[in-house]
Specification:
Oligomer: single chain
Keywords: Endoplasmic reticulum, Membrane, Transmembrane, Transmembrane helix
Structural class: mainly alpha
Number of helices: 3
Family: Belongs to the membrane magnesium transporter (TC 1.A.67) family.
Largest sheet: none
Radius of gyration: 27 Å
Shape: elongated
Transmembrane segments: 42-61
Protein name: Membrane magnesium transporter
Order of helices and strands: HHH
Main location: endoplasmic reticulum
Strand content: under 5%
Distance between the termini: 65 Å
Number of strands: 0
C-alpha cells in the first residue's frame, strides 16, 4: 500500500465528511425553516480538497504511464486468433468507396 493509495482513501473520507456536513446543514435549515441555497463555504473547500486528492490518487495508484509507440515490435500482432468465427468482414463499411474505387472512376 503506497502513499498515493493512502492519499486516495483520505480524499474519499474528506468527500464523505463533506456529504455528511451538507446533509446536517440542510437538516438545521429545515428546523429553522429557512431555504437551502447551497452548502457553506467550508464544505465547498472540503469538496475541492477531496476531489483534488482523489484525482491525484487515481492518476498515481495504477502505476507509471508507459508510452505507446506505434512502430514498436511489442505492439505488433504476431498471429491471428485461433477462433475465426468472431471475425466479421460483411459490415456497413463496405458501402463507403475505397481509395481504389475512386481512382478507377477518373
Amino acid at each position: 500500500m503506497g502513499a498515493a493509495f493512502v492519499v486516495g482513501v483520505f480524499g474519499v473520507l474528506i468527500l464523505a465528511h463533506a456529504t455528511y456536513s451538507t446533509i446536517h446543514y440542510r437538516e438545521l435549515l429545515k428546523i429553522m425553516e429557512e431555504e437551502f441555497s447551497g452548502p457553506p463555504i467550508n464544505v465547498l473547500f472540503e469538496l475541492l480538497l477531496g476531489f483534488v486528492l482523489c484525482l491525484w490518487a487515481a492518476l498515481a495508484v495504477p502505476g507509471k504511464f508507459l508510452s505507446i509507440l506505434p512502430h514498436s515490435e511489442e505492439n505488433r500482432i504476431v498471429s491471428l486468433p485461433e477462433n475465426l468465427d468472431f471475425m466479421i468482414f460483411n459490415h456497413r463499411g463496405k458501402v463507403f468507396p475505397t481509395v481504389t474505387d475512386l481512382k478507377l472512376k477518373h
